Structures are given as C-alpha cells and as structure tokens.
Amino acid sequence: METKVVILDLDNLDRTAIEDAGKVIRNGGLVAFPTETVYGLGANALDDIAVKKIFLAKGRPQDNPLIVHIADFNIEYLTTEIPEIAKRLMEKFWPGPLTLILKKSQIIPDTTSAGLNTIGIRMPSNIVARELIKAAGVPIAAPSANVSGRPSPTEVSRCIEDLEGKIEYILGGEKCDVGLESTIVDCTVEPPCVLRPGGITLEMLREVNSEIYIDPAIMKKPVGDFKPKAPGMKYRHYAPKAPLKIVQGDLQKTIAKINEIVQNYIDENKTVGIMATDETVNFYKNGIVRSLGSRNDISNIGKNLFEVLRGFDDLGVDIIISEAFEEIDFGVAVMNRLKKSAGYDIINV
C-alpha cells in the first residue's frame, strides 16, 4: 500500500490535504494525525470494518478498546447517558487531553468498544485533529499511531517509521504538546475513577469533584486480582527495544547507583543509554546520556519521554537506565508510562 504523507503548516493549513484525509476516513481508510497528546491512528468509529484495520495495522489486541475523538460537544448520539459530572468535566477540560468513559449507544460497534458497554470519548485541542474530524463528518476512533507496545509517537517521523505502507494517509504537524496519552476518567461509576493519568491531573480534576480518585492498580505491577480497571492498561506499552530499568530514591544515591550499574554493563561490553535530567546529566561520565529536561518542569519531561526512548532504539543500545520522578501532579502520568516501559523493573536506593 502506498502511504501519502503531507506535512502541514499550522499557520496556513492545507485545506485540500485535510479534506482528502477526511475522505479517506469517510471511505473506510486509515489516517495518522497529530493531537496534543500523541499522534493518533484514526478510522471511522462507526464503521466496524474500518476499525478492524486499526487493530491489524498496529498489531493491537482485540480486547483493547479505542477512544472516539469528536470535534464538538454533540455526543448524545454516541452515549445513552451523560452524567452531571461528565458535563462539568467537558465544560472545564474540553477540548483537551481528557477522555471520559460513558455508557455507549448502539451506534458504536463492538469492535470499537472491544465488546464493552462503555466507550471513551474525547475532544482534542489540536486544530489539525479537530479539522480532520470535521472533514471526515464522522467521529474518529484512534489509538496511538505506532506499532502496538512501542513508545507512542510524538513526532510525525515516528508514524512514518511504524506505519508507512500499512495505511493510506499520514498528516504531519508540530511535535505534540503534552507527549503522553490523555487522562481517562470513568464517569459510569460513583465517585468517578481515573483509569489512566495524563495531562489533566488528579489535582485539576478534584477542582470539579473532590471525590475523584485514581485506580490504585495503575502505578503497581499487575499481580493476581490486583489489575488496572482499564483493559488496555494490562498490556505491555511504551516499551523501547532494549530493556529499561528505573532507579528510584534519593537523587544523589540514584546517580551513584546508575553509575555503578552502567560500569558493570560496560565491563560486559554492553552499550548503555541513560535517561537523566538537566540537573544531573553532567554527573554521568559513561554511557550515552540524554536529558529529558529540567526536574523543575515535569511537563517538559513528559513531552520528551517517548522520543528519548525512541532515540535509544535508533542507537541500538543494549540497556537503558532511567532516573525516577516524584509521583505528584503530572509526575504521576510520567511515572505511570515510565514504569510500564520498564515492565516495572525498579531498583530502590
């Protein structure tokens, strides 16, 4: 399959390209496109056959539901009930990186919802994403635009790397602003529950409802019955090709431990990647060191996380060692992705 790639100038949007991509969606094809979180791989959310193509292109498990992306607040036809808390969250955070879980209507195919009676819905703030949805004339089901299990793409080059020849169209824009997938809140339960942390933090959500809580299994390794409520969170996600280890604890002890680990691998003729920060990057004398950004700007660390992991894939390192981050505010989302990337291989110091 030939994949058409168009890189858009956000100051002067190519309407023809957006209309062409919208037509691909409308006709049952697949389009990769930017959002403020990560790049998405979209199909007509109401077309069972089109949605199945997403699972094939990504190699995605069939029991992992998709999020439906919309361009306006008219969602009554997609759901049987919109609880008051959902309306308040929509008013405050849409458009933006927030997905709401609601009871689905019959118009949503079981393939899109992975057989569940609920569906995740969000309105992206990215202008290209919303204009594409409008051009398609249908809601767009879209997971991240990468091979399943790999770090999500925050730059168009990674969509091309993973999906060229597998889908009809790739729309490119700027690097994604948030860099981590949307926050997911289940509004079908009381109190509402965060099933995946993201750019809309628990602290922000509690400004709307103080009882909203995070699924306690999100930050832990799934063991026995202690598993995340969201089906997709049980799978291996965001993982680089090389094994990843996290060193967690006092920062000075973390630096010393990472240097010790790195030296041991170097003695075994292994190539080591180190994920550091602006404040610590100069304390590592061996290995390939990359800064995620400043510890004083956790949002920037989240924005850079997946691309740094992808960069280590490019370099073919044998092992990656990462510093940990404080699990407050957006740091919860960063550590959620980092832990899953590492398969919960954590060294405490």
Task: Walk me through the topology.
Blueprint: E1 4-7, H1 15-26, E2 31-33, E3 40-44, H2 48-58, E4 67-69, H3 84-93, E5 98-103, H4 110-113, E6 118-122, H5 127-136, E7 140-141, H6 156-163, E8 169-172, E9 183-186, E10 193-196, H7 202-205, E11 213-214, E12 244-248, H8 251-267, E13 272-276, E14 288-291, H9 298-315, E15 319-323, H10 331-341, E16 346-348
Parallel strand pairs: 1-8, 2-8, 4-6, 5-9, 10-11, 12-15, 12-16, 13-14, 13-15
Antiparallel strand pairs: 2-3, 3-7, 4-7, 5-6, 9-10
Helix pairs in contact: 1-5, 9-10
State which percent range the strand residues make up.
15-25%
**Which CATH class of the largest domain applies here?**
Alpha Beta
Uncertain ranges: none
CATH-scheme architecture of the largest domain: Alpha-Beta Complex
Report helical residue fraction. Answer: 25-40%
Task: Note the main attributes of this structure.
349 residues, DHBP synthase, Rossmann fold, eleven-stranded mixed β-sheet, five-stranded parallel β-sheet
